[in-house]
Specification:
Layout: E1 2-5, E2 21-24, H1 48-66, E3 70-74, H2 83-86, E4 96-97, E5 111-112, E6 117-118, H3 131-144, E7 152-153, H4 161-176, H5 184-187
């Protein structure tokens, strides 16, 4: 399990006895999308040097707050990031990227491990998508055998009881039947 944390919104109390690795969820989770763009913290119109400055400062803050739990991995808000910025992440001390869907082009010095199953129905109820839909997406990704881990994207701030129940049952049943849940540090070895 890895928790994506917004660096400029994080408070020290969040990291007390935290049993998860911490990834960087953008800098401030502010939508900077230009007209016609989908939501993004990293707009195509923002100068790259400005975006890199924000990323560097946010990484430094989160690394201090999270301590040993911090992995220098960016999980961009809304899962959107210009590929030209991805290639420059090592310049600001970030060596991993986690978004949603298939991996993008590889960038030297950046390990990309994505999530593939979103358990929230964003276009409908904004609650749990339902067991059938969530399991169907999981099974489809595993069956496709794309040579990458299958990631489950969660949104703890909006989970309803059904989402929490599903996750607990999924974790318990898969482990009991021999599935191996990878640790974030093993997925992002260059980052840990």
């Amino acid at each position: 399990m890895a928790l994506a944390v917004v660096p400029l919104a994080a408070v020290p109390e969040l990291f007390a006895d935290l049993p998860a690795c911490v990834l960087m969820h953008g800098t401030d989770h502010r939508n900077r999308a230009a007209a016609g763009e989908k939501k993004s913290e990293f707009s195509a119109t923002e100068p790259e040097e400005e975006a890199l400055r924000r990323l560097r400062e946010a990484r430094e803050r989160l690394a201090v707050l999270a301590g040993a739990a911090f992995l220098p991995v960016l999980a961009p808000p809304w899962n959107r990031m210009r590929r030209s910025l991805v290639a420059r992440l090592p310049e600001v001390g970030l060596h991993g990227l986690s978004g949603f869907g298939p991996r993008g082009e590889t960038s030297p010095g950046v390990v990309e491990i994505n999530t593939h199953v979103d358990i929230i129905d964003w276009r409908g109820s904004r609650g749990f998508v339902g067991e059938e839909a969530a399991l169907g997406a999981l099974i489809s990704h595993i069956a496709a055998n794309r040579g990458e881990p299958t990631g489950v994207l969660t949104h703890h701030a909006v989970h309803d009881e059904a989402a929490w129940t599903f996750l607990a049952r999924l974790y318990e049943r898969t482990r009991r039947h021999g599935a191996r849940w990878a640790e974030a540090r093993s997925l992002f070895p260059a980052s840990g």
